């Protein structure tokens, strides 16, 4: 008989008792009181077991319990002798009865906050309830979960058990590297007629008791700060400051984007430091659950890093980043749960701010099109038209630098207009540093849009990134379906464009191409006239 962990049973119960439209990740998380990372993990486990299926509603998954068809009757195996057949049947019934009793005992021991297990005299695990198996998977001995300072206390409790008396001690058991959960552990000797050489262990989770009013107030303070931040910079800084002042006084912290770039950091993200922390950050984002590591050696970091936590920021069942904390002490499970709540709130706030930026940038693209139309309908001189056009587009879209390149009669790219281009970048353009991007724009005949999250950003010349350029936009200028030039712009801010915004930007290049064609035809007519 299949057995399930407490979290699995909680999720299955929720799915059975709610309408299909209420069975998306966010609603399941709120309804069960578990973080999105935890719920997503167990949804994947139940799906792998064949218990759940899902359908897509937009980008979100709608989960439901999979309907199982009847298994049908199995034909009884042919037996050579009736006596052998009877013996096999008796064994089958005995196995069934043992499984039924095991399932009944497992159900009775399925407690939400209490681990129950049987261990040998040397604390090797013989049997455990579902909660212990889910929290401490693949644990063979209870000693593997103890802090070194707690082993003498456990040994003292074992001596008491050998005299026939139960003993209770408070212990922190290691769930992950650097993360401990507090328990009140009672060791109970077997009854007189029971099996010798073993001990029952009953551990009551003390996490909820240790979550003080101050902890709850801290969470409320951080959540309010998240909801009132005016922009992403203040959002990240306010959240991490709230964590340091209200939850845990970390040594250093950072918030990473999906591509592994630090959007916020209290330490200099040098190559050697990134090589140490990025594997932990990427693990948390790939597994969609908090990752932890023991002592870390980080060059130039003040204080000994005894533990590191990477908490994923999850949106629509995907990691959109991670929060990294470097601590001068080991972490408690209560702290991890609080950080996961903060990460969920941060994910929602980041999504809202991204949507706001996308809407704002969409309006800016419409404004740029409108300004450009006015200029192109009025201007006739090509040089003046290009100068006024790039100034209007840069101003409407909020770019700090830009240039226009056009093909000459020899099909060579010639710079025609430049605005606010640093001398170093201007020389890079002339020396061919951007030739690969230009060739891409010509080949694809569509807008090239690059931010730090795009793979092409890493391929940019290091000198370009050193200039602080965080958004590159290259718009092909087209005449009759052919690219005749490029309008290039750069910004020190990361711009968020949705698909319709990029379509508007493509129209800028088309309009500019039509205006150039009209201007050239006018010049030809004048020359003939």
Task: Describe, in plain words, how this protein is organized in 3D.
The chain is built from 17 helices and 18 strands. About 2% of the residues have low confidence. The strands form four sheets. Strands 3, 4, 5, 6, 7 and 13 form a six-stranded mixed beta sheet that branches. The protein has a five-stranded antiparallel beta sheet with strand order 9-8-12-11-10, with helices on both faces. A five-stranded antiparallel beta sheet has the order 15-14-18-17-16, sandwiched between helices. The chain is α+β, with helices and mostly antiparallel strands and 529 residues long. The radius of gyration is 32 Å and the shape is elongated. Helix 8 runs antiparallel to helix 9.
Task: Report the radius of gyration as a whole number of Å.
Answer: 32 Å
Shape descriptor reads elongated
Which structural class best describes the helix and strand composition? alpha+beta
Please report which band the strand proportion falls in: under 5%, 5-15%, 15-25%, 25-35%, 35-45% or over 45%: 15-25%
Q: How does the SSE layout of this entry go?
A:
Layout: H1 6-17, H2 25-32, H3 36-48, E1 52-57, E2 60-65, H4 82-108, E3 114-120, E4 125-128, H5 130-135, H6 151-162, E5 167-176, E6 179-188, E7 198-205, H7 207-210, H8 213-228, H9 232-247, E8 252-256, E9 262-265, H10 271-287, E10 291-293, E11 307-315, E12 318-327, E13 331-332, H11 333-378, H12 382-397, E14 401-407, E15 413-419, H13 423-431, H14 435-444, E16 448-450, H15 455-458, H16 462-466, E17 471-479, E18 482-491, H17 499-528
Parallel strand pairs: 6-13
Antiparallel strand pairs: 1-2, 3-4, 3-7, 5-6, 6-7, 8-9, 8-12, 10-11, 11-12, 14-15, 14-18, 16-17, 17-18
């Amino acid at each position: 008989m299949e057995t399930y962990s407490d979290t699995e049973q909680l999720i299955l119960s929720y799915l059975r008792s709610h309408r299909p439209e209420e069975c998306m990740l966010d609603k399941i998380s709120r309804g069960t009181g578990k973080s999105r990372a935890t719920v997503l993990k167990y949804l994947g486990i139940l799906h792998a077991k064949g218990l759940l299926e899902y359908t897509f509603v937009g980008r979100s998954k709608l989960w439901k319990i999979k309907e199982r068809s009847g298994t049908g009757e199995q034909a009884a195996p042919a037996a050579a002798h009736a006596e052998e057949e009877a013996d096999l049947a008796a064994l089958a019934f005995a196995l069934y009865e043992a499984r039924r009793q095991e399932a009944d005992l497992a159900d009775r021991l399925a407690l939400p906050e209490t681990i129950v297990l049987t261990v040998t005299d040397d604390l090797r695990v013989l049997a455990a309830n579902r909660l212990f198996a889910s929290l401490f998977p693949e644990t063979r001995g209870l000693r593997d979960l103890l802090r070194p300072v707690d082993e003498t206390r456990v040994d003292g409790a074992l001596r008491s058990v050998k005299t026939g008396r139960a003993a209770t001690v408070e212990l922190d058991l290691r769930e992950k590297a650097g993360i401990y959960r507090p328990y009140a552990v009672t060791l109970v000797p077997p009854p007189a007629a029971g099996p010798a050489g073993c001990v029952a262990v009953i551990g009551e989770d003390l996490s909820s008791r240790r979550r003080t009013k101050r902890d709850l107030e801290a969470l409320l303070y951080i959540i309010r700060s998240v909801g009132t931040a005016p922009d992403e910079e203040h959002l990240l800084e306010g959240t991490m400051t709230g964590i340091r002042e209200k939850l845990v006084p970390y040594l250093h912290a950072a918030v990473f984007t999906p591509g592994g770039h630090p959007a916020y950091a209290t330490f200099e993200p040098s190559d050697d430091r990134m090589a140490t922390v990025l594997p932990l950050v990427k693990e948390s984002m790939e597994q969609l659950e908090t990752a932890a590591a023991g002592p870390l050696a980080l060059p130039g970091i003040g204080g000994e890093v005894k533990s590191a936590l990477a908490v994923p920021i999850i949106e629509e069942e995907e990691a959109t980043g991670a929060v990294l904390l470097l601590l001068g002490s080991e972490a408690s499970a209560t702290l991890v749960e609080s950080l996961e709540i903060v990460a969920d709130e941060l994910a929602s706030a980041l999504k809202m701010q991204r949507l706001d930026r996308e809407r704002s940038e969409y309006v800016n693209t419409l404004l740029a099109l409108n300004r450009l139309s006015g200029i192109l309908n009025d201007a006739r001189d090509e040089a003046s038209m290009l100068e006024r056009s790039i100034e209007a587009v840069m101003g409407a879209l909020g770019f700090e630098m830009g240039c226009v390149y056009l093909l000459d009669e020899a099909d060579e790219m010639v710079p025609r207009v430049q605005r606010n281009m640093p001398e170093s970048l201007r020389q890079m353009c002339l020396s061919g540093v951007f030739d690969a991007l230009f060739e891409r724009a010509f080949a694809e005949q569509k807008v090239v849009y690059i931010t730090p999250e795009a793979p092409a950003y890493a391929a940019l010349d290091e000198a370009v990134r050193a200039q602080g350029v965080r958004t590159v936009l290259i718009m092909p200028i087209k005449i009759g379906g052919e690219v005749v030039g490029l309008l290039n712009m750069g910004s020190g801010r990361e711009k968020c464009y949705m698909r319709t915004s990029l379509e508007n930007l493509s129209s800028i290049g088309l309009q500019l191409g039509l205006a150039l064609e009209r201007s050239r035809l006018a010049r030809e007519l004048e020359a003939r006239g």
